[in-house]
Amino acid sequence: MYSLQFTAESSSDGMLERDFTVGDIPGVLWSPDSPAAGRAPLVLMAHGGGNHKKHPAMSGRARLLVTGCGFHVAVVDAPGHGDRPRTAHDEAEIAELFRARAAGEPEGPIVVRYNDHLANLAVPEYRATLDALQGLPAIGTDGPVGFWGINMGTAVGVPFVATEPRITAAVFGQHWPDVLAEKAKQITIPIEFDLQWDDEHISREEGLALFDAFASKEKSLHVNSGKHKELPRFEADSAARFFARHLGRATITTA
Amino acid sequence: MYSLQFTAESSSDGMLERDFTVGDIPGVLWSPDSPAAGRAPLVLMAHGGGNHKKHPAMSGRARLLVTGCGFHVAVVDAPGHGDRPRTAHDEAEIAELFRARAAGEPEGPIVVRYNDHLANLAVPEYRATLDALQGLPAIGTDGPVGFWGINMGTAVGVPFVATEPRITAAVFGQHWPDVLAEKAKQITIPIEFDLQWDDEHISREEGLALFDAFASKEKSLHVNSGKHKELPRFEADSAARFFARHLGRATITTA
């Protein structure tokens, strides 16, 4: 088991941000900036393709959970993303994606294949990161843990959650069923799932098929009009409320 | 134009409840119990089949909007429901529904036909009620107006909203597309739409077809696992937040 090393620390508006490494995996842990906070639930997040652990979508969601719910939130860079080196395979797949995009060909087959490759690497990394985070006194091994990942975060999260009993609630969305549906059938925890009704990459049938595959007794699907990148901001608020319901704690105030 | 007559008044926990009539239509208006409240947005609601204006689902939703958002909320009894007389036609349709249910036959064709009949009567009643409510100084003619009706409330609400430009945001759900889809195509305001993934009466295809029919640029679908009557309570919270976003005003606190 790798231990967690903090490498930088800053704080703003009630949120403590600490960079860390677990082995050679770089991550960030956001926490309530209050010495009396005590133990609190943890939400692991996974970023989208081409992004990184501190993308504004990540820090924005973290703020909802940290200042709205009093939770800890952690994200690590996916292989080939953020502060991590790209392999020749990464470069080739990214080039192929850009080529397909420029040629107006479907991106789905390339994204599905490349994200599956990355997920195979990332799942054990997420497990090691969770092990290390649970070694921190403010998190511990007995508290509830959530997972939140959309797009590539779902490609990583579905196989991770399918084999990780410590995760008790998850938010997924916006991915294809090809590789993931079989793994989703092993997931029984409460989930919230986002899809875009006018997604130019993922058809309605594909999106609904992945939602349908989850074996969870309690599952919610949120569909919004709009294209792939137009997921409304209020779905982040909804996800934060979902975690507040399922991980305990928290009063959220929404303007 | 009928004027609005208040016939009873009570108050509890910050919510004023006033029974009223508009012509021979009995209704209830819930409002913030604060003399300094001033003008506030109005949400018209429509109750489900077999229920009435003060069913706990109605008063519970009203409380979210009145005490959470500072809005006015009004419901009237549908024809043949609540304090209103049943006609021979009502009795025959209800008997036919109970017969089909006991025989294990599909309820959909009877509900669709009977709700369409009731909606034809109820739409002008809702229009007259809105006219009368807007005559009250605390509501007025220039404020935003929402509509919230699930089940039979959607059968009434879709034709009402399709022809009523004063409604600026609406929550619908859980009905068949047969009669309503054509009318939904005329609706362009923001909507939130609920359906149950394991509804024993309305198939997924039927539910999705009605959602798809709305011409609204901004529309959200909330699907939850569970049967027809298992719509989760948190969807009422979500609907209240939807109205808070679209009708202005309001801070909602969710535990």
UniProtKB/TrEMBL annotation, chains A, B:
One of its GO terms (molecular function) is hydrolase activity. InterPro entries: AB_hydrolase_fold. It comes from the Bacteria. Keywords: Hydrolase. This is Alpha/beta hydrolase. It comes from Amycolatopsis cynarae.
